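Q: Hi! First time doing this. I have a protein sequence and I read that you can turn it into a structure. Is that right? Here it is:
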Amino acid sequence: MDRTGSLKVIIICVAVVIAIASLVVSQTLTDRMKQEERTKMEIWTSAMQIMSNADSDADMTLVLRVLNGNNTIPVVVVDDNGMIQDYRNLDISRSDSLASLHEQVAEICKAGKNIRFYLNDRAGNVDHGQFVDVYYDDSLLLRQLAVFPYVQLGVVIIFVIIAAYLLTNMKKVEQNRVWVGLSRETAHQLGTPISSLMAWKDLLEEDHPDDAAVKEMGKDIEVLKTVVDRFSKIGSEPEVEICDISEIIKDRAEYISRRISNKIDVRCEMPAHHVKALVSHTLFEWVIENLCKNAADAMDGVGAIILTHGKSDKKIWVEVSDNGKGIPKSKYKTIFNPGYTTKERGWGLGLSLSKRIIEEYHKGRIYVKYSELGKGTTFRIELRDVSV
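A: Yes, that's right. Below is the predicted 3D structure, encoded as structure tokens:
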């Protein structure tokens, strides 16, 4: 696992610990507050009972202070006939306040939080036939505290998503810098020996103008110049133009067939009409080369590579198929990651560069359309059809 992946795991683990700790602490505090509010309501109910059963000349100062001290807990006092005797801390703001009151009372009664006390008869004895129910609900503070851990959990999740996104972008930026630096340094390092080779070729042509080896040397120098041009374009916005995709594919197929095993059949299945697209000629042919080279490597020197293309669904598509080893479905996306390779001496850059060229520079798409182990693979490139 790379550094970015490790940081993601650490952030997720920390977030999970914070979330669990928050839920546990909040639940503990909520339970304590519920118990405190229950105790307060028991005291409030006792004060209500004293008030109801007290003589007219008794000093009710302390009792009234207790009754009037409840400014947070919603409470409704209902007699044994179901009539509302008193209520506190309820939001009765509608014009039909009586209907609104009964709705809130019904909700509080449904919650089942109530304390009952019995009234005294005329002789001062407890009359079990007459009673009063005190229904109460959670205070606003308690309801907010109950919701708070879920809000905090949402904040933690958002934090994890943002952190993961930033880490991923940081990794991409870092990779881009590596690609750009490596590409430009490669182009720079190749420039000097290519210039020297060109000078030597010119000298050899003067002495041996018809030598086939000198002509082949000239072709290879042109290939090196093309490679330098490709690498120099990485990291900058390439110039695109309307190009004949059919000709590019045909040219690259001929080029690849001369440089791989003669037991590999490279053929093009061209449509009746040539297809044109808005591409960078140098970079697009590089992608075709990379796909063909990967296909050749997958066949161990024996097999067939088929290149085809066409138009459909307002897109221009190109497919490179082989009958090689195939790719496991779990690796369809992994193979485009920088550094991924199955070859002993491979760098794992070809498909990664191809993906960058198609998706970032041409705003297209490249993916594994089909693959089956032991039967082969088909890569598909999709580009915008500018003619639509």
